[in-house]
Amino acid sequence: MICSNLQIKDNILYFGGRSTVELAEKYGTPIYVMDEQTIRNNCRKYTVSMKKYFGDNARAFYASKACCFKKIYSIMQSEGMCVDVVSPGEIYTAKSAGFDMSKVCFHSNSKNDFDINFAMDNGVGCFAVDNLEELTAINNFAGERGFKQKIIFRVTPGIDTHTYEAVNTGKVDSKFGFPIETGAAMEITKVALGMDNIDLAGFHCHVGSQLFDSDVFVRSAKIMLEFIAEVKAETGYEARELDLGGGYGVRYTENDPEIDIEDNIRQVAEYVKKLCADLNLKEPAISMEPGRSIVADAGITLYKVGNVKRIEGYKNYIAIDGGMGDNPRYALYESEYTVIAAHKANEPCDFPCDLVGRFCESGDIIQPKIKLPESVARGDIIAVLTTGAYNYSMASNYNRIPKLPVIMVNGNEDYIAVKGETFEDLIKNDM
Length: 431
Prior knowledge:
This protein is an alpha/beta fold and about 425 residues long. The protein contains twelve helices and 21 strands. The strands form three sheets. Strands 4, 14, 15, 16, 17, 18, 19, 20 and 21 form a nine-stranded mixed beta sheet that branches. Strands 5-6-7-8-9-11-12-13 form an eight-stranded parallel barrel, surrounded by six helices. Strand 20 (about 405-410) and strand 21 form a beta hairpin. It is globular, with a radius of gyration of 23 Å. The chain starts with 5 loop residues before the first strand and ends with a helix. About 45% of the residues are buried. Residues about 165-170 have low confidence and may be disordered.
């Protein structure tokens, strides 16, 4: 199995020690199911490894955009994680969950005045600044409040990660950050150092997603530390923090490699320490921003088959009671998934088909060209694996379909972490 929290017993798929068929019967379908213990274990891979190899000042920031609801922030708080956010909605959710807002960093390439003031009013600890207009606004609003706002600058190191174009964010011409290559990063640093209400802590970069080794992080660290050394030589300012971003990958299919997070962090740390010594730099406090690798394998989605359509000589379709409204990732990225018939998990998979949704779009595909048991029929439970990241968070009400509930399992316990929407929820803001 692609994840350690998956088992097959008596032809039934188990997730987090719980029968997926029983969960589907108890809560109905479609539903997201998340395994709390897997989330916690994934957090610890980062918190323990980063302190072990980078030292006590190292921090792991959970990237909220991967999956955001109140229980997630409660887990992050208890596991000693910091979090990054990209919107007032994520800030509000974290605050409502009782998260320590001093451990929050506010990203986004386009923060308006409301966003900045809302973050300041709610005690957000740090801003990841992306442009001059944002920097100027933060300086002004902090001045009105009579304090210095801690910031880091998002810098683009100009690295091509060879990932899918839509998730490659470290290039010079990315919409994110200040490029080093053009001199923009150095210029904005000098501007910030001259501002009265700005506390520049350091720099940040994020170069891509679904990375399975330390190479990209090592290359990023080299460029960023050399830039920090250039800034020190030119201005006398030495950054005290360096955020290397996130991006470690997860296994969506058997073709994806396994990754040892601790060993990768060790490799990056060894390189950072050596390069800092070579460049005569104090080792900055290192941060990383895992998102997908915290929650992806902690989630599955359970559906019920609506119909099986056989088009003789062409193609077979299995249509389910969910689709692109609860998982748009195939439509966006042609993302690969592993699909299992939950109560026929040991049966031979000899029926070639496309798994498609109920939404009124020909592009409503969850996974094409898969094989499931020939016996799959209306009412059967289908499990799509590794859906904990960017499924719930990207869900929509397209076709006026209510959003799904999130069911959390934890050992022998299961509970509703997010209620499913009702039809009344769909119209409550209509006038």
